Give the backbone structure.
Amino acid sequence: MERNYVLIRSEMSHAFLQTVIAYLGCEYQRSNPPADGFGIDATGCFRGIWSDEEPSRHDIDIKFQLKSTSHNFTEKEDVLGYSLDRAHYEKYHENAQGPHNHLLLLMLLPEEGEYASWLELTPEQLVVKKCMYWTSLRNAPALAEDRSSITVYFPKKNLFSPEGLKKDILKPLAEGKELSCEF
């Protein structure tokens, strides 16, 4: 039986996102049709965990759109570039301009056929190799009429990890700041 690598990439991305959210003791909800057709793959519900000094009673919900790739990206010193077609970019861009927090996540995965090297499981530990990055399309430029695609940039400093989620995403949102596009 041939392996469905599109399904594998999708499930690995969801598993990574769910693991990071669960590590913080927060809620993860996977979207089902039709929500995923609107550019929302999952929602994280965060309850007062973004500050080690003083927990907040303020709740933050974030809607996530997941992308994953093993080779369809460009890499520069401090950013990763990922191409989105017009329809997907416009959907994600529109979501990000609304009242809710929306993040676009990019999971880097091994080449097809090399997935065995991505995951190691022993009785002592579970090791997941490669990683996920995040960006916001809030205040990003609209796509020019003559363009059929756009490269979205993910700063390498935007590593999606439990500590990064608390410090770089939840804390600024709790302080009333917006996560805006950086490209």
In short: The mean pLDDT is 88. The beta strands are 27-30, 42-47, 59-69, 74-75, 79-85, 101-108, 119-121, 126-128, 132-135, 149-155. Helices lie at 5-23, 86-96, 162-174. Residues 42 and 172 are 21 Å apart (CA to CA).
